[in-house]
Amino acid sequence: MTELKILISRAQIAARVAAMGAEITHDFSGESVIFVGVLKGAAIFLSDLARQVQLDATFDFIGVSSYGNRPSPTQELQHGWDSTGEVRLTKDVDQSMRDKNVILVEDILDTGLTLTYLKRILLAHQPKSFRIAALLDKPARRKQPIEADYLGFSIPDEFVVGYGLDYAERYRNLPDICVLPRS
Ligand code: IMP
Ligand code: MG
Questions:
Q1: What is the pLDDT of residues 135-163, one digit of tens each?
Q2: Which of 152, 137, 143 is nearest to 48 (CA)?
Q3: What is the pTM (predicted TM-score) of this model?
Q4: Active-site choice (82, 110, 137, 166)
Q5: Any idea what DSSP says for residue 170?
Q6: Which CATH number covers residue 52?
Q7: Domain that includes residue 36, residue range
Q8: Could you give the 3-state DSSP secondary structure of residue 51?
Q9: Which listed site, 20, 71, 111, 145, has its alpha carbon 20 to 30 Å from 151?
Q10: Is 65 a pocket residue for ligand 1 (Cβ < 6 Å)?
């Protein structure tokens, strides 16, 4: 496997995720939360974040895919995956979120289309509260006005892989977040 340039090291990730977990523990003191992970990219972040939260907690997962023609891996690398503009649900949550404290856990906030869509779906459950925890944010690419309540790192407009993030399903198991060269 080719050596990729590290953008955020495993040590930096661990420190930041611990701080995010402490913040969530503080904000929801005395309450229960449901972590809803967005498949598959958020799986690793969710498992680390949840272990830094000292609250009564449960997990659920939701799946999405871009609508219609998913861009080819090369297009995804060059332009992101917002070319079709729409997302669809491939897996719904397993339980009602009504009156629950929902924390939607996502790997990266890019154009914002995915989280805007998921927020609408989850708010329809009438949760007690709704928060977004995103490991990464590329604010330069935003098309929808949506922000994370808990954010790991704001990054420049690079295509990144590792720590759950993929390129054509590869690299999710890299322990650091690395930049994939666009050419
Ligand atoms: P959004 O709907 O444009 O905000 O897209 C968010 C989704 O795009 C994430 O869940 C990722 O699957 C994917 N994505 C966006 N940027 C990257 C990246 O740099 N690397 C890997 N996946 C990315
Ligand atoms: Mg992806």
A1: 999 999 899 899 999 999 999 999 999 99
A2: 152
A3: 0.93
A4: 110
A5: B
A6: 3.40.50.2020
A7: 10-65+80-156
A8: coil
A9: 71
A10: no
